[in-house]
């Protein structure tokens, strides 16, 4: 028997590690950032931000009638065969094509009202863009970068998922409670599958092509469709604000991952155990986009409120790294073989740490189950204040304000917003004001407060 030295084993092991590292070094993670109107570029081999591709100015500069950049950068698609990234901007009705090798914008194509997501077919010859503000899919030739076809579908298409062989496209909707199954060659709808909710923004196909999963953000569910029968296999109760879904292999076992924004968690479901929930991993505030590395070892989660990406080790089932990125990440994708291995920062701009968001949580004063959270971002000379309240009194008017009081009177010294809750006692909205320094040393205002307009009583207060 031939002897193998420890040195040989060491060299072989090192070679395998180097090979794995070189593959990671050519990969990238991208996020579409809706407030800063940038695409953040991360290097997964070092788990660091390389920089941002600037597609437009941050809000509210986009409101100028002379504005020419992209607005509300949101959806992302990637073709590994072409090293081509597609970034969809909702507010400017556009999709921008970017060379991932050079981080360079190649062309911006303007399409229909409020497009949402981009998906390349497996061959990389076409990009299918869901035009959510209308009722069709825009098909763009990935070589010429021009629109060649519009496919009529149900009102409000949310996203497209192709089977691995490229024969079938599954299209969910944000306005219609159905999934349309389209023949990708004839562009004809072959079946319409009714689903439990009209709001399905995200859809994904399993690597083996057996399953299609789509999220229902409004009712906190995921529908799983069998591609063999084109029928619903199961509907899972996943949790409030179920955002994005994806598939991968963990220890050679197929799993489905989903971001649950209302619970700040990444949930893991075992496919082989009929989509049984097996793990729930705590994340930062409002997880949105999720995608796994090519080897399935890591999941990358975009945090909409924290302006960060968290790296989740899927063997340890734990967050192992948090990375600051652009403002308000929406779509996130992992792009294999996207760039040369030298981690070039060509055409990238550094992150402005002063733009980092601040999350303010409000505590209820009456031991109720109500909850309130503000996300505050600097936008020019003011702050954008995104608000989310749950389990208040239904159909009730409230005032959100700042106070410089430190006793039980808590006067509303500066009104941020007034709103009325819906029939479930919830409110989500946004306003502007200069509040980012609240509660800090020397600040004019000590707390954020919520007051019931009818009783004039204090309902919630920040820490």
From TrEMBL:
InterPro entries: Haem_d1_sf, Host-pathogen_enzymatic-act, Lactonase_7-beta_prop, WD40/YVTN_repeat-like_dom_sf
Domain of life of the source: Bacteria
Pfam family, one: Lactonase
Official protein name in the record: 40-residue YVTN family beta-propeller repeat-containing protein
Organism: Pedobacter quisquiliarum
Organism phylogeny: Bacteria, Pseudomonadati, Bacteroidota, Sphingobacteriia, Sphingobacteriales
């Amino acid at each position: 028997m031939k002897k193998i030295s420890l040195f040989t084993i060491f060299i072989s092991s090192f070679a395998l590690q180097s090979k794995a590292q070189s593959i990671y070094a050519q990969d990238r993670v991208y996020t579409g950032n809706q407030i800063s109107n940038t695409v953040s570029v991360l290097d997964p081999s070092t788990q660091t931000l390389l920089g941002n591709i600037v597609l437009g100015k941050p809000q509210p500069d986009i409101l100028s009638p002379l504005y020419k950049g992209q607005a509300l950068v949101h959806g992302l698609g990637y073709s590994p065969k072409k090293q081509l990234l597609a970034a969809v901007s909702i507010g400017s009705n556009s999709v921008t094509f970017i060379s991932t090798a050079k981080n360079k914008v190649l062309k911006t194509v303007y399409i229909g009202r409020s497009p949402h997501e981009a998906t390349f077919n497996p061959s990389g010859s076409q990009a299918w863009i869901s035009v959510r503000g209308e009722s069709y899919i825009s098909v763009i030739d990935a070589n010429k970068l021009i629109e060649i076809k519009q496919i009529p579908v149900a009102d409000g298409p949310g996203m497209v998922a192709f089977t691995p062989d490229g024969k079938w496209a599954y299209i969910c909707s944000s306005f219609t409670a159905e999934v349309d199954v389209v023949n990708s060659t004839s562009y004809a709808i072959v079946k319409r599958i009714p689903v439990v909710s009209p709001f399905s923004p995200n859809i994904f196909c399993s690597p083996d092509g057996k399953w299609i999963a789509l999220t229902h953000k409004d009712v906190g569910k995921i529908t799983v469709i069998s591609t063999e029968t084109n029928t619903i296999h199961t509907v899972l109760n996943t949790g409030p604000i179920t955002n994005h879904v994806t598939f991968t292999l963990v220890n050679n076992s197929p799993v489905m991952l989903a971001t649950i924004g209302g619970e700040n968690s990444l949930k893991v479901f075992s496919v082989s155990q009929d989509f049984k929930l097996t793990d729930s991993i705590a994340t930062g505030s409002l997880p949105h986009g999720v995608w796994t590395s090519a080897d399935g070892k890591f999941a990358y989660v975009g945090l909409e409120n924290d302006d960060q990406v968290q790296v989740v080790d899927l063997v340890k089932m734990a967050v192992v790294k948090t990375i600051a990125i652009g403002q308000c990440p929406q779509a996130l994708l992992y792009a294999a073989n996207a760039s040369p291995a030298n981690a070039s920062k060509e055409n990238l701009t550094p992150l402005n740490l002063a733009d980092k968001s601040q999350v303010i949580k409000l505590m209820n004063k009456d031991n109720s189950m109500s909850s309130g959270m503000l996300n505050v971002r600097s936008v020019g000379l003011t702050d954008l204040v995104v608000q989310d309240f749950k389990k208040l009194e239904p159909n009730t008017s409230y005032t959100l304000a700042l106070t410089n009081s430190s006793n039980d009177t808590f006067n509303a010294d500066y009104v941020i917003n007034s709103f009325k809750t819906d029939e479930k006692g919830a409110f989500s909205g946004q306003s502007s004001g200069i509040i980012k320094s609240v509660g800090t040393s020397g600040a004019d205002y000590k707390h954020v407060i919520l007051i019931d307009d009818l009783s004039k009583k204090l309902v919630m207060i920040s820490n």
